[in-house]
Design a protein that fits this description.
about 300 residues; 9 helices; alpha/beta; 7-stranded mixed beta sheet; about 30% helix; 5-stranded parallel beta sheet; Rossmann fold; about 25% strand; 14 strands
Amino acid sequence: MIVFGGNASGELLNKVCAVLNIPLGKALFSKFPDGETKVEVEENVRGKDTFIIQSISPPANDNLMELLLMIDALRRASARRVTAVVPYLGYARQDRKHKGRVPISARLVADLIETAGADRVLTVDLHASQIQGFFKIPVDHLPGRIAFENGFQENLKNIVVISPDAGSIQRAGPLANELNVPLVIIDKRRMDERKITVRTVIGDVKGKTALLADDIIATGGTMVGDAEALIREGAKKIIACATHGVFSPESKDTLDNSDIEKIYLTDSVKSVFPLPERAVYEHSVAPFLAEGIRRIHGNLSVGEIIEHT
């Protein structure tokens, strides 16, 4: 077994290799003078079980190309199996046609990963779990809540978990069950691509610490709007957790000037943008990613990781 990683891996790559107690595979990622991505595998992989850890996070196009070229390089170097370990699958929010004449980008990315030569995909907290069906190869989907189940630096007796919309209940609900706290849902309506009007907070948040649980933070605007609605309903304190801290150039100012007191993140993404002052990386996806890799290598059930948590 050999584990490689691209420029998007950050410290997560070293953490996974440390858990597996194996050295990092040697590969070179660089640019040609014209800006094209250059990838070179620097060790023998013939007949080996290979894994590439690479999130498709900003700069998403560069990181996607690194992943695709690395898969192709390993395949052409006669690796026995190539597994794409993609902690954050970029483009996953573009999973349907919300209006005419737009692509289904998530399906296209799935096709690209398959065509490049990946035999399997291991990912964390897909924006929509049905994206697994975009692939014809096996996809192991690990829920991000596993990273947060050890709790937070808060008094759980006074916490309620907030699902930011009806579609996120499948993510927030199990976290609330694991923490043994109530679940509250925010019902909202999207007016257009950039504007969301919050309608109703369904559940009691008065005097409570509200934990906004989401999969992705990008601009932070939606989360800030949710926090304002919770404050209006009497929430005493707002904290948040998100599996993928993607962020954007404007997210730091947006979140630093909000009612959100702390944002708990995992290390699935190495953000290239300034982080909000209230963001803390206290939860890692490395232990269960490493376990997923170990189980794939040993032809064992990956689903048991979820069943045992």
